[in-house]
Design goal:
alpha+beta; Trna Endonuclease, Chain: A, domain 1; five-stranded mixed β-sheet
Length: 118
Amino acid sequence: MSDRQARGLAAENWLIGRLANRRVQLRHHRYGCRLGEIDLVLEDPDHIVMVEVRYRSSLTAAIQSIDWHKRRRLKACAYVWLANNPTDKVIRFDTVGISGTPPNWRLRWIPHAFEMDD
């Protein structure tokens, strides 16, 4: 695992620790299929939330790094997840940018960052 991958995984794990405050259930961490990976699959009372987490030196850089190509791969992987986990809940894609260093992490959570049909 590269240093960058290790920092990204540490940021994901830190975020998972903060989920108790958001009234969501973690369904999967790093759900992978041949088409890609979804960092977090969460469930709240109304939604299945597919979350892409990005760690970068700045919050802006983290959020901007989730380009159309990455969104396309996330959606393709989400279709596979849904085929294996049928649900009537609305699917939502959120992005989370994380920057800083532990214990002074900073985050920006963007709900409804994009839609399945974008």
